[in-house]
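Materials and Methods. Structural model of protein disulfide-isomerase. The 533-residue sequence of protein disulfide-isomerase from Neohortaea acidophila was retrieved and submitted for structure prediction as follows.
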Amino acid sequence: MASTLAVALVSSLLFIQPGLADGLYTKSSPVLQVSGSNYDDLIVKSNYTSIVEFYAPWCGHCKNLQPVYEKAAKSLSGLAKVAAVNCDEESNKPFCGSMGVKGFPTLKIVKPGKKAGRPIVDDYNGERTAKAIVDAVTGKIVNHVARLKDDDYADWLDAGDAPKAILFSEKGTTSSLLKAIAIEFLGGIDVAQIRSKEDDAVEKFDVQRFPTLVLVPGKGKDAIKYDGQLKKDAIVTFLSQAATPNPDPAPKKAKASSKSDKKKASKASSSFAKSSKSQASAQAETDAASQTAETLEDESQPTASPHPDAATEDTQKPVKIPDIATPIPSLAETIPLQQKCLNTKAGTCILALPPASNPYASTEQALASLSEIHHKHATANRKLFPFFQLPASNPTSASLIAALNLDASTTQLIATNGKRAWYRQYPSATFTLAEIEDWIDSIRMGDGAKSKLPAELIVDAAELPAEPIEVKVDSTSDPEDIMAQLKQQLPEGVEFELEEIEDGEYERILAEASRGAAKREKAEAAATARDEL
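The predicted structure was written out as tokens:
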């Protein structure tokens, strides 16, 4: 038996040796296969947003992602590019290193920037589902569609001699399809959207139903209504009578490779090879037992460079200003705890339970470590389940400790999942950042044993008062960017539209929000005072 197992392991190791394995995606796959030599032409110079997977054929998580990624590629066909790079190929290793790839699979979303050939490259750290990938990519599609109203559509029509295409719609948001149409004819046809409530524009073009697409072939020419299917290929054919679609990728231009470029590529390849070899070795050892995480820690931030250089000894580094981690929030009352963590629809939560009296230094260390971990993931735009501090003053704290048979005299960390009715207790008596992070990573990957969460601790979500939905929007004046950010944060199935409001209503909303914030601050201050007593 032992010799048979040894032979099987040796065969497995031989099978996954770099260079012997083919790529994961075939020529018939909807996933575009990209290499270091054609990345610029196919991705960087494209007007379309792309998502690029950097993978190795021997990587177990890459294999698991393959069907999901291909499903996402089919959904995004004609709207965005879904590409993959085989980093196990020798010719691609310098490129993968220059892109900061340190683990597999690594996913990056490449969005065209304001300057041609200088896209914004952003790590994708969301869920590995087709829907999550599609939502993330469509949210990054560049919007070249003008939003018009009765008071400005005439000026837009008169501006320039280019043909115009207008979609009359009942919706206030711009669809990914219309954005893709605008990209297809960028510089050839100006594209706009007008809502059905804009009566003057609707009457001028005699629009009887919605949606209706209208083409104005040129200034002073009669409008032509489109009566075909609302599919991209059919619409492109219709609009092609007025302008030629943009070629994608753009025509190639030869570029000489300098000695400096070759030197950088060599260093990047060497750095990448070390990371890849280390992961391949770990993968070979792990495959014989159970699968674990293959994505190495990477805190890279979005960059405007299509080829971010790998850091070397000679690279000058900017001075880093310390970024202080904010403390994890405290749940002082039972209802917020039940709304966040202990109900039949609640996902995973991390709860820190300090002792009722005489907190140890370990309590402070545990809370500091949790704050640092949460801050690191938030800074890198990685999704992570919430962390909360549960003070002894919370009435449910004692019930939780008793039901789970925890030691009330020491700091306790637990992970709970109300929807699946399980919990996990942190096993160590020390609370270093590395130890807690390893424990949290094992929860994220589904590793380790779980215990059943007692039914009496979980409440029916339908019986709880409604919890306000809080969303965070980065500073931006573009309504489309705001819509995309909100869409990614709201629960599945929630639909919304942005409407303009009068100044008086805006002032009323601000005043009401200010009063609410004051009440919350007062309640939090009272809870803190109780904790100190």
